[in-house]
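Chapter review. Work through the record for NADP-dependent oxidoreductase domain before attempting the end-of-chapter questions.
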Amino acid sequence: MRSEVARLRCGKTIPLLGMGTYCPQKDRETTISAVHQAIKIGYRHFDTAKIYGSEEALGTALGQAISYGTVQRDDLFVTSKLWSSDHHDPISALIQTLKTMGLEYLDNYLVHWPIKLKPGVNEPIPKEDEFEKDLGIEETWQGMERCLEMGLCKSIGVSNFSSKKIFDLLDFASVSPSVNQVEMHPLWRQRKLRKVCEENNIHVSGYSPLGGPGNCWGSTAVIEHPIMKSIALKHNATPAQVALRWGMSKGASVIVKSFNGARMRENKRALEIKLDDQDLSLIDHLEEWKIMRGEFLVNQTTSPYKSIQQLWDNEI
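Structure tokens for NADP-dependent oxidoreductase domain:
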């Protein structure tokens, strides 16, 4: 099966189809097995994060595949993310991630959320007294730039940053972000943000490209939408394949999570679909709805964000 890539500002290429490894159960053996299956099927782009609890399992599987000769390290694109309680010291956080994963470097290291939590907070949903009032993004980004200088990663970027937050970052960054990973699917198309990122040579990577079905916060609205089903029928495809192909047709990479071998193969066949102008127009007219809203980062007392609108700078 063919692969498609985009070229990042740092010169590296990123495969447009990526495998997500967020697993609420943090099931190590299942994750290792799924990654081995994914490599055999042809996946080369893998996404994790400290807070996912899957770094060790992903690193183990990749290390095994490299030692077996199934794949070479240079063929892989591996992303992890700086958790919000490590913003005070990205270098130490990345060194720990590399140790956990058994890797010498990451291809891509992202600031997971534009929020700073107190050191030692390792739960995805922080308590009220665990927020730092000062965002400190400038100091955090300096640490990310240092990670790049030290060769701990090949590119740096952000996740869940609005257009305004991208502009704010560009105002002080010595090294501009290569990637902004955000929710993106046919019901949340990110038109404004994609334009801002394109104009500033920032690659958009879409998480939850199917709307996150199977996650406690996710929805089946994307893959069950009648328009998505009708486009799928026209192309003898599935709604999931249409959603993935739509994201890639916009130049974005898509991070899709499935540990089921048949579903992984089905998702990879999205690369073979060609959507026409009518399909794209139909999708462009769908009503929009953001699924991952980030309410857990908003409160009236300790968070710098007092509302959802503040978190996303009215881009919601």
